Amino acid sequence: MVKIIASLSALAVAALAGSVSDFPKEIADLMDPTADPCTDFYQYACGGWYKNAVIPADRSTTDTSFTVIGDKNDKIIRDILSANNPKLTEYYNSCKDEAALTAIGVTPIADDLKNIRSANSTNSILEVAADLAKKNVPAFTQPYVYADKKDATTNVLYAFQAQLTLDQEYYTDSGTWNYLKPLYEQYIVTLLMLGGNKSEADARKAAKLIMDFELQFAGVQLSKLEAMEAEVSSYNPMSYADANQKYPLSIGIQLKQFGFNIHEGCMDNTNKIILQDLSLFDRIEKLVAAQSVEDLKTIVEFKLLNAYSTSLTPALATANWKLFGKVINGQKAEPSREKRCSDDIQTMLGELVGDYFVKASFDSTSAKRADEMVLALEASFKQGIQNATWLDTETRKNGLTKLSKFVHLIGSPENPQTYPTLSLDAKDYVGNRNKINSQDTANNLALIGTKVDRHKWSSPASEVNAWYSPRLNSITFPAAILQIPFFNGKFEPAQNFGAIGMVIGHEITHGFDNSGRNYDGDGNLNPWWSDETALEFNKKAQCIVDQYSGFDVISELTGQSLGHVNGRLTLGETIADNGGLKTAFRAYQNYIQSNPTKFTQETGDKVFFLSFAQGWCSKNTDKYLQRILLDVHPPGKYRVYGAVQNNDAFAAAFKCPANSNMNPSKKCYLWE
Ligand SMILES: [Zn+2]
After folding, report:
1. What's the 3-state SS for 131-147?
2. What is the helix, strand, coil percentage profile of the chain, to 5?
3. CATH topology of domain 106-311
4. Which residue among 48, 289, 548, 564 is least packed, with the fewest CB closer than 10 Å?
């Protein structure tokens, strides 16, 4: 009896949905047509796929888009790596040679260990730490050169807080910390014994000290949310002399080791350092000053071992995986060495790999189509600004000016970093990494005072991602994301606009989210909003904060709550999702007015929303969901729910009754 009722209701729903058989096969295959799209659109769009999806043992999540493209790209990259391509071959072979790495043990970092252990004063250990920062192993703070927030045409020096070993929230959330503490302690002990040659008793003593320090450091750091807020509210330029005087330990010694004149008292573009938040550096300085020389040596030694744990012996790499892969990410099996090395080379030599990748997998027709779509989405966002009745005339004009100054970057960088002068060695993995990191640091520092290149990429062309850079006012779509299921030249317009169109709209909207809206079209931190309209924006944003904060993220294994989405932390992303979906839908409607489509209006609209949702179908371990709850992006399912709930066109397309789950009467409209 239960079965008959279930079947009947399934039939009724399918009849209501109308046209599953009209949908392209690749869409229908993922769907659960027995689900009601107005009750649970994610289940309707993804349920068929979800039922049979399996998370590979060496991963903590799988999905219908990013993972699929990532796997396809991995194959292309493996081919590139197995061909004889200069630099890539040497690097890849040096990474893969586990026998050689086992044989040499920690010899590749022996000099660094010796320098740390022979330091005999606070200054000397901090000098060693600063030298390690040049190799991308920062201990407490990290210098970086980027566009000046108040004059985005010029590159200037900034100081940032260094990252902790674990995410900050793992230390500050007492429940998580209590769970992780013994496992993290074991990791530190293993590294200090295997890499630092300590006895177990000494390693345990050191581990307690390191954890105690890191707990305090986590306490003084800015949270993700505070850092995001400081990004648009704090601007503290200082001369090198002033920075050295105020923060001699945390900044001064680093400036000196990096070759800056710490007595330079005048301040211009080539002689200044910008600090985001002075109270942060006050706290870091105080904390570093409170440590004894011996304690600082222990802390820096662990920083070193942790940073190199995946580049030395396989035993150290496994210790790293046991904590970060297994415990923190919930993976069941360690990734193969080939996979590790392929991932690593994309991080270390990303633009060089990307250059080969684009030649192998991207053509000028795709680039042209993608460019047309970006222009269509920009035109649609322009309509959105023009139609937004809550904007006053001046703010609207400023918004349109900002939009007109967007730079779009598609496919791959025009001038990729290929390290022409670097020679790599197939037998020296750590040496190769050090050479690349040192070169990157030197190249970055050489930018001080130079003109900002608005066409610069921050990730390689082989990364399945897209991004907006507020200070460059640029949107970037690497070749890797311009593929099925996001984009294909043979797709129906409804599919392309729903999938990649929404991604493009998302990135455009980032220029106008709670953070991006503080920057003008030239990338300067320069308020262009009237007070009343800014207030209106905040009200609309609060609506989205409240809506997403209401999402209870449920374990896919136990059905138990894992915690709520952090509506404030995710606000930039959720504004971008909402604006992106609306912008893409309008662009799609504009497009089909003068271009052919084989769909009826109703089927096309449905395919549009299904193509959007199917970009976000995922199956996740609890560990993965717990991690993503600390991220600025909500889990995929809730991104789908949130965006369609606020979308009138969605409710119309699926004829969702008022106050159904996916069509609540209270809607948040930002952007239009
Ligand atoms: Zn985003």
Report:
1. HHHHCCCCCCEEEEEEE
2. 60, 10, 35
3. Neutral endopeptidase; domain 2 (1.10.1380)
4. 289
Ligand 1 mean position to 372 CA, how many Å?
Answer: 21
- Choose among 579, 588, 594, 577: nearest CA to 376: 588
Ligand 1 center to 580 CA (angstroms): 10
| 216 Cα to the center of ligand 1, angstroms | 31
pLDDT digits (tens, 9 = 90+) for 418-444: 999 999 999 999 999 999 999 999 999
How far apart (Å, rounded) are the C-alpha atoms in residues 26 and 227?
41
Read off the DSSP letter of residue 250. I
Phi/psi at 162 (nearest 5 deg)? -80, 155
Q: Is residue 275 a contact partner of residue 281, using CB atoms and an 8 Å limit?
A: yes
Torsion of CA 119, 131, 304, 206, to 10 degrees: 30
Q: What does the alpha-carbon distance between residue 466 and residue 410 come to, in Å, rounded to a whole number?
A: 10
Task: Return the residue matching tokens 């970009």.
Answer: 615
Residue carrying structure tokens 């003084």: 220
Strands 552-554 and 561-564: antiparallel
In 21-87, where does DSSP find H-type helix?
A: 25-28, 41-52, 66-82
- In angstroms, the Cα distances linking 638 to 366, 568, 663 are 31, 15, 14
pLDDT tens figures, 22-52? 999 999 999 999 999 999 999 999 999 999 9
Provide ipTM, 2 decimals.
Answer: 1.00
CA of 509 to the centre of ligand 1 (A): 9
Distance 146 CA to ligand 1 centre (A): 20
Alpha helices in 388-518 (DSSP H): 393-404, 429-445, 493-496, 502-510
* Domain ranges (residues) in the chain: 106-311
